[in-house]
Model the fold of this input.
Amino acid sequence: MKEETSYYVLKKQAVPEVLLKVLDAKKLIDSGKCKTVNEAAEKIGISRSSFYKYKDDIYEFHDSLQGTTLTLNLQMDDELGLLSDVLKIIAECGANILTIHQAIPYNGVAALSVGIQVLPTTSDITELLEKLEMAAGVHKVQIVGRSAEL
Done:
């Protein structure tokens, strides 16, 4: 009986340190800064067994996003011009805006759903999410959907 594979999206602070170190070790090997797993693991401060245990199970989110559509949900203040600011951030990061749906604000807070297409020219998605989270009046940003382009 084959076990079903599930995927999750986590913020960096929720990921155990050993998994982040495995990512760092993979980067050292991929960049050529370390020639062997042993060298990379030693430099990062993890065991080789930890590297081998997790190496195929963790990847940076933005590594495989090109050609996908993401659906973002935002909770934001009902302020004049805020929607324009949010859309400008998305556009400046080079993502193609496919859909926009803003619910009628309740108690001064609006729910916004934006469908974006990740293009070859799109900057790092992590950077896009951070810029959105830091925008004045934006309370919460979530990726609620991801689909591959046909």
The chain has a mean pLDDT of 88. The domain at 64-148 is CATH 3.30.70.260 (Alpha-Beta Plaits). The longest strand covers residues 138-148.
